[in-house]
Each structure stands twice: as structure tokens, then as C-alpha cells.
Amino acid sequence: MKLTGEVAVVTGAGRGIGRAIALAQAAEGAKVALLARTAAEIEATAETIRAASGTARAYVVDLIQLDAVDATIAAVERELGPVGLLTNNAGVFGAIGPIWVVEPDAWWRDVETNLRGTFNCSRAVLPGMISRKRGRIINLTGGGTATSFPNGSGYATSKAGLLRFTESVSDTLTGTGVLVFAMDPGLVRTSMTEYQLTSDAGKAYLPNIPRLFENGIDVPPSLAARLSVEIGSGRFDRLAGRMLMAARGDLDLTDSAIDAIVAEDLRSLRVNGLPPERPSPR
């Protein structure tokens, strides 16, 4: 198994993409810590993993509270062992509409949850990873990362920020043995996209989302889950600091394709020479 003995932390692990990632990492031998605010959901994910003879623990935490995150990661390391893989998946998209219409607090909540939560979790695990000279962090991006996202500016701003955060932290860690990646899961049907489809704001301001689903753009969460395992296994270590795309065939990148990306220093906005999808919320 590709992650045997690894201690993996997955945020937002109670449903959707995060749940799929946690299940896949556990199936490959990782001991998985499931972080989220909703106890029932992460407990259910943990039970599913344990029923399949895996190891998982659920930790209820608000990721924007730094002290709470620090205490949670300390508990994970006491109970499961040193964290070697962190997947920052938790995210929200509640502010839909023009900025002069949306509630300012909702707009900032999108930015704070998506960006500050990733910062807090990364900050908590990095000292240990650096001291052990090994570790990998995966930051999930989404719609608006590399293109405009009309009426989704809070979410898009947070995801674009996550990409630059990934690149900057990755370069800061050069030579430490710790690697940071961004990962775009593609358009996955989750509770987040259901809200975009069914809420009054979504119907009014995001008409493109139902059209994308009607046109068959519906990426299974298993692709992001599989890609997280491959990143965690070290297969893509040479692409640290870049964004890998679950829905664009990056799972099938050959060694020669990776060589070309590295040789030409192709970065997040030019992966495989393809323009990014627009939009790609999850």
C-alpha cells in the first residue's frame, strides 16, 4: 500500500471530496485524522474507515481558531504519531453575488475559512515536518484560482490566494525535505455545489453551474482522492509548488511529461499548456 505507516490529516473530512480523500488515504494504509466542525459527519467517516480495518480518529475543531488547531494537531501526534501528510480540503462558498449585494461578513467568511484555515493547519504541522526533514502538504484550490469567477469573488479570491500561498511556502521550504502542492479537484457535485444550484442567490447569479452539469462536467471525487494518494506517496515530488489537476489527466502524467514541466519551469497557470477550466467550483 502506498501510504503504509503515514499519519495523514484531512480537513473537511466529513463529506464530499474530503471524505473521499480520507477514505482513499486510509485504504492505502495511512492512519487518518479527520478534522471538521461537524462531529456527526467525521465520526461517520471514521466508522467507515474502521469498518474496513483502517485507522481513523475524528477531531472536532474550528480551523480559523489558531489555538484550537494547534491543540488538535498536538492531540493527533500524541494519539496517532507525527503528521507526514496534510490535506487542506475544508472550504466554504457562501457569498454568491456582486460585492454590493452580498453580506460583507459572508464574503470575508469565505476568505477567512478557506485561506486562514489552511494557514493555521499548515503552520501547526510544519515545525515537526521540518525537524523530521520530511512531509507533504496538499492545498485544494477551486473555481477562480486562475481565472475570473463572476459573482463568486470571495471564494475566487481565497482560492487564488491559496495558489500563491502554496507557491510561496513551497519555495520557502526548498531544501528542507518538506513539499507543498496545490490540487484542483474539478467540478464535483458536493453540498457546496448543491447550494449553488438550489439557493436563491445561486439561481440568480451562477447560471453557468447547472449548465456545466447538464453538459456532463461532473467530476467524481474519487479522482481527487486518488491524486491525493499519489502526491502523498511521493510520485509527484518534482512538481512541488505547482497545481495538479484531478480532472485534467494529471494522474496519468508520465515521467517524461514531468521532466518537461520541470525543464521548462511550467507553473500552475500553464500545466500541460492547457488553459484552466472556468469556473471550477467544488
Written account of the structure:
With about 280 residues, the protein is α/β, with parallel strands linked by helices. About 45% of the residues lie in helices and about 15% in strands. The chain contains ten helices and seven strands. It has helices spanning about 15-25, 40-50, 65-80, 105-130, 155-170, 190-200, 200-205, 210-215, 220-235, 255-265; strands at about 5-10, 30-35, 55-60, 85-90, 135-140, 180-185, 245. The longest helix is centred in the middle third of the chain and has 29 residues, at about 105-130. The relative contact order is 0.14. Residues about 270-280 have low confidence and may be disordered.
Question: Helices, strands, pairings?
Answer:
Blueprint: E1 7-11, H1 16-27, E2 31-36, H2 39-51, E3 55-60, H3 66-79, E4 85-88, H4 104-132, E5 135-140, H5 153-172, E6 178-184, H6 191-198, H7 200-205, H8 208-214, H9 221-233, E7 243-245, H10 255-263
Parallel strand pairs: 1-2, 1-4, 2-3, 4-5, 5-6, 6-7
Strand count, sense and barrel status of the largest sheet are: 7 strands, parallel
Using the CA coordinates, give the radius of gyration.
Answer: 18 Å
Distance between the termini: 28 Å
In order across it, which strands form the biggest sheet?
3-2-1-4-5-6-7
Class inferred from helices and paired strands? alpha/beta
Per the principal axes of the C-alpha atoms, what is the gross shape?
globular
Count of DSSP helices?
Answer: 10
Secondary structure: number of strands: 7
Question: Proportion of β residues?
Answer: 5-15%
SSE arrangement, N to C = EHEHEHEHEHEHHHHEH
Helix content: 40-55%
- Average the pLDDT over all residues and give the rounded result: 92
> Which stretches of 5+ consecutive residues score pLDDT under 50?
269-282
